[in-house]
Design a protein that fits this description.
This protein is of the alpha/beta class and 347 residues long. Helices cover 44% and strands 11% of the residues. The structure holds S-adenosylmethionine, iron/sulfur cluster and FE2/S2 (inorganic) cluster (FES).
């Protein structure tokens, strides 16, 4: 592809929000016009979702997991992890505090932990809903009836990354799990009326640029409402300890491509991006992102929810993170939203 073609592709993405797989690959591998590419994603972000940044308070309520994903520090075979579970009262307390910081959404995230059965989760969801908060769940694969029960209890959104659309690679990295079942879960989540969040890990061993292009096309085909993309960061206590990991640049490129092709969705500047680059979230907000998920987990639990080394904010308090992230957002001329921040479909 020559220079004029790259600029023409950026313009096509910005104006039509449609690209072929080959065109996506050409833009992902180009290094010469990255600035123009990111600027186009930033314009699309501004035109479709505006300058407001939505903050979602993240509660990491259990680091116990029955799965064994090769990349993740919480995998069940990692015996070095001190496992914890927050009780329902503590979860509710953190949610109440999240509200006091002005957050309009809490994200309940955990490993796949059966200790929280359907009745327990339904109870927690109902109580948090009474606070007037929107709820995002990120608790893994469940049967449709379980998703239905969470939805009936009032949960608004669900995050379940596909991680990679390369089925063989997925099943290699997530032993015992089925890629088809993960897609089935995403379909169930969408059909049940949740806002659907998915996304990918960028830079997992064996992943190609072509497969990243497939990921973005998959997000579009699923009509995802939120996409979280982040670099894979190798964890020394996992089988992928010695792998190279993803880069900040490539993960923001995949994110910017997602903004260009799914212009009206919510896209977080992810924690893993900032863990690789001290300006990572601000840069991501200027390359297509419009959401940040500050941690509202308190005390020692933050250190124990260690997916990868170098995770930011593990020694900071929720109050500190609140003022830190507000300062960063205002520092680039953006403002913190005061609404619940649901997707407003415009595409
Ligand atoms: N257990 C639930 C699940 O897997 O969907 C939710 C929690 S899981 C820790 C959330 C996300 O963390 C995963 O979807 C994965 O993309 C990400 N993650 C895990 N290990 C990681 C690593 N080493 N580097 C970057 N992200 C990682
Ligand atoms: Fe468990 Fe999620 Fe980590 Fe996989 S990514 S080991 S399901 S917490
Ligand atoms: Fe936690 Fe900046 S957001 S220290």
């Amino acid at each position: 592809t020559d220079k004029k073609d790259i600029l023409a592709l950026i313009e096509k993405a910005e104006t039509t929000h449609e690209l072929t797989k080959d065109e996506i690959v050409a833009l992902l591998i180009d290094t010469e016009y990255e600035a123009e590419f990111f600027a186009a994603a930033d314009r699309v972000r501004r035109m479709y979702v505006g300058d407001e940044v939505h903050l979602r308070g993240l509660i990491e309520f259990s680091n116990t997991c029955k799965q064994n994903c090769l990349y993740c520090g919480l995998r069940r075979d990692n015996k070095k992890v001190n496992r914890y579970r927050l009780g329902p009262e503590t979860i509710l307390d953190f949610a109440t505090k999240a509200k006091s910081y002005g957050y309009r959404t809490v994200v309940l995230q955990s490993g796949e932990d059966e200790w929280f059965d359907v009745a327990a989760m339904v109870d927690i969801i109902k109580k948090i809903k009474e606070l007037g908060l929107a709820i995002t769940l990120s608790v893994g694969e469940k049967p449709r009836e379980v998703y239905q029960a969470y939805r009936d209890a009032g949960a608004d959104r669900y995050l379940l990354r596909i991680e990679t659309t390369d089925k063989a690679l997925y099943e290699k990295l997530d032993p015992g799990m089925s890629w088809d079942n993960r897609v089935k879960c995403l379909q169930d989540i969408k059909e049940l009326g949740f806002e659907l969040g998915t996304g990918s890990l960028v830079g997992i061993p064996g992943q190609t640029i072509e497969s990243l292009a497939d990921d973005v096309l998959f997000f579009k085909s699923m009509d995802a409402d939120m996409i979280g993309v982040g670099p894979f960061i190798p964890n020394p206590d996992t089988p992928l300890a010695k792998e190279a990991g993803g880069t900040f640049e490539l993960s923001t490129k995949v994110m910017a491509m997602t903004r260009l092709l799914l212009p009206d969705i919510n896209i977080p500047a992810t924690t893993a991006m900032e863990s690789l680059n001290p300006q990572g979230r601000v840069l991501a907000l200027q390359r297509g992102a419009n959401v940040v998920m500050p941690n509202v987990t308190e005390g020692e639990y933050r250190q124990l929810y260690l997916l990868y080394p170098g995770k930011i904010c593990i020694n900071d308090t929720p109050a500190h993170c609140r003022s830190c992230i507000t300062g960063k957002i205002q520092g680039i001329g953006r403002k913190v939203a005061e609404t619940h921040g649901f997707r407003v479909k415009r595409a």
